[in-house]
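Researcher: Next sequence.
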Amino acid sequence: MPDAPRVLFYGSPDFAVPTLRALIESPYRPIAVVTQPDARAGRGRSLRPPPIKELGATHDIPALQPARLRDRAAIAQIASLKPDLQVVAAYGQIIPVEILQLPRHGSLNVHASLLPRWRGASPISAAILHGDSETGVTIMLVDETEDTGDIIRQRRTPIGPDEHAGQLSDRLAEMGAELLLETIPEWIDGAITPAPQDSNLATRARRVNKRQGRIDWTAPAELIGRHVRAYTPWPAATTTLDGTSIRVTEAAAGSDDASELPGTIVDAAESIRVATGSGVLEIRRLQRAGKRELSAEEFSRGTRDLVGQRFGADDD
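Model: Next structure:
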């Protein structure tokens, strides 16, 4: 049996954790991980390591954390590891060609979409926001531009009607890890011929920022429902009510309409029904800033004269 390849893993957030864990438990245990630098987070703004660094440390796998992968020192350090195969999952930086040329078996990426649809940083949110009925994972060859490399293998899955981005991300992360381990042996044996992407079919999922979470109540209820799912848990679908920030965590378009101004609460019982630009949105769960998440019924019991108030009135 030939020696196992020297695998170098690149990843940073929670999405990458199942892939790294699967590699650790396989014959392809990484010799090191490359991840983003520790970052300040939380109310105390303390430095926190990326999840990949934490997982690697529990298995005595060293972590490299270059601020810029293009720096000569970072390239030299990675070259000194002499990787045979590189695996990438949500790393967060473009890998320069000097590094891509190092491994004899190339660099494989676990991407959370059915490429060429939704290239870019936020494919899961984009698929939900645009009403895609299915998505999947792609194992692809990494090249010097973002998500344009040849496709090695794909696996499809339907998107649940109530599934939010966090739930879908967890499913795709596990699916990607499983598909990667199925793919590596055949790839190394030369049994897979990669297929080029059709760039005419490409769509781009741009990086999500916090401002995009704000709900536009003049939009149709169907779109707002997808907005809530696409931006849960991050950056969160947010609005205001009587000067207080509100996070909507579960909602869907209702079957009727309303003539009130968009954002107006027209009913509050098992769900909070809100007029929109077209149709009614039924809010099932929501959360005031600094408070615990509540069902619509709990929220309604704790808020006086809710019917007739307007979400987002402070934004006018």
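Model: The radius of gyration is 22 Å. The mean pLDDT is 95.
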